[in-house]
Amino acid sequence: MPQHTDPKPTLWNIAGIRPFWFVLVLVVALVIFLGWNWGKKQYGEQQQGHLLAQAKAAEAKGDYRSSLLSLRRVLQLEPDNVEAVRMLALQADRFNSPTALQWMQRLADLEPNNQTNLVLWAKCAMRQNELMVADQVLQRFPKDQRETLTYHRLAGAFAIHIRKYQAAEFHFGKALKLNPSSPHEQLNLATIRLLSAKPEIVSESRATLEKLMTSPELGREAAQALLTDHVRQKNTAKQLELAKKISQMPGSRFTDQLTYLDLLRRNQDSRFNTELNATKQFALQNMQNASELVAWMNAREQVQDAYTWAMSLPEKDRATPALALSIAESQIKLKKWEELYNSTAKADWQELDFLRLAFLARAQREMNLWGSSRSSWRQ
Q1: Alpha-carbon distance 217 to 41, whole Å?
Q2: How many other β-carbons are positioned within 10 Å of the β-carbon of residue 100?
Q3: What does the DSSP 8-state code read for residue 348?
Q4: What is the pTM (predicted TM-score) of this model?
Q5: Which mean pLDDT values do the consecutive 10-residue runs of the chain (379 residues) have?
Q6: Greatest Cα pair distance in the chain
């Protein structure tokens, strides 16, 4: 009589679960898990998009503090969000913050094949005089991109920063060959060739720059190059004539007027006081200009005059962060500690508020308020 043996026990027999139901439960669980992850990712991306929109809107209004807060929240959700890193890098660069270079590097690391990021990073490094960093950035350009117009412009500018004028002439010459009809390349090459030891090259360069002075786009830069040449040649009459012309050019900046004042002062010209008073009246139209004028006077031993003029302005104008900063510098130079304390104790300098606290701490220290000074410094 044949013997019957029990079937070999399986996991399903032991657990009392049929394979069909186990697979079904597993599939449902997997779908729920993947759906939850997808939903979480979608929600995170939507939140990042909303915060980026808030940051851009705040930036457009000049509210950089709110913009910064929104961008930081984006990076908490996604540390490698390229758009947030780019905005932080550009904002830091706009305010000449030392952190700008760190953000620029991070941006370049996130988008290693984006040449624009390298250009922004190198220019930022040169503006901050971090020439080793600028050199390292240039080295990051792939070899196949080192014969481009962008690279030669950048390398030429870097060569000027490190005073390798022959290298600058080489790169600007290469740029002009790549773009022979460009006034921009003509300007760069003519400017550097003003330093040539050959009189005929210098004369040719001056003629090029005088021609470019008629350009609506590059006229100011061409005139400034010629002005620098006149200063180098110690030609006082031409310095003052050209500096005045630059300050009246379309598209001129307030700094051009300050340059003219500087040359009048340096040459002890009798027109200085008249021009200074005219500049004060012009600066009333824009408190950023007023701030620059006070800072300029502070640096040229005219602190009392700067302070007297600034304090004659309406209180709402003096409360403008940029002007308040320049006034605080005047108060330190004049050792007006109580005035410095009063102007910084309850003010709001917006994105410059960390500087307000530093000035407040200095005033408190000079007034022997040591505890309060330490407290202000730590905020």
Answers
A1: 47
A2: 24
A3: -
A4: 0.73
A5: 54 53 59 55 70 87 85 89 92 88 94 92 95 96 93 97 96 97 96 95 96 94 96 94 95 95 95 96 95 96 96 95 95 96 92 88 91 80
A6: 135
